[in-house]
Amino acid sequence: MEDVLHHSVPKKNRPSELNYFRPVALTSHLMKTLERLFLNLLRPQVQHAEDSLQFAYRDKVGVEDAIIYLLHRVHSHLDKGSGTARILFLDFSSAFNTIQPLVLQCSEKG
């Protein structure tokens, strides 16, 4: 089996501190396939221990489910007439996928 290749990719053009580097691990197709196989074997064994309010990393559950649950709780609270509610939604969908492929290729070579 191949080892995982670790690279430090700069977050900006001329990084001046270590904090300006993003660690990236590249794994082979074989390793990714093995991870999926083990996940499929282990997931049924631990599903009973999952929190019912966990919406991430679960099959057929997503952001929409979390929003619907939250809005239901807020509406239930407001229907009682016991106060107000504030909700802040933050979108981190692109926070971790901004590595340019060319930068990653250059870091592999050198």
Describe the 3D structure:
The protein is α+β, with helices and mostly antiparallel strands. The protein folds into 2 domains: 1-49, no CATH class; 51-93, no CATH class. It is 40% helix and 11% strand. The chain contains 3 helices and 2 strands; from the N terminus they run E-E-H-H-H. It has a two-stranded antiparallel ribbon with strand order 1-2. The two termini are 23 Å apart. InterPro entries: RT_dom. Residues 9-100 form the Reverse transcriptase domain. This is Reverse transcriptase domain-containing protein.
Quickly list its features.
2 strands; 110 residues; alpha+beta; flat
Mean of the pLDDT scores? 81
Rg, please? 21 Å
User: Any low-confidence stretches, pLDDT <50, length ≥5?
Assistant: none
Tell me the count of domains.
2
State the share of residues found in helices, binned by percent: 40-55%
Q: What is the approximate shape?
A: flat
Largest sheet: 2 strands, antiparallel
Question: Span from first to last CA?
Answer: 23 Å
Q: How many helices?
A: 3
Write the layout of secondary structure elements.
Elements: E1 5-10, E2 21-26, H1 29-46, H2 63-79, H3 101-109
Antiparallel strand pairs: 1-2
In short:
The chain is of the alpha+beta class and 110 residues long. Helix content is 40%, strand content 11%.
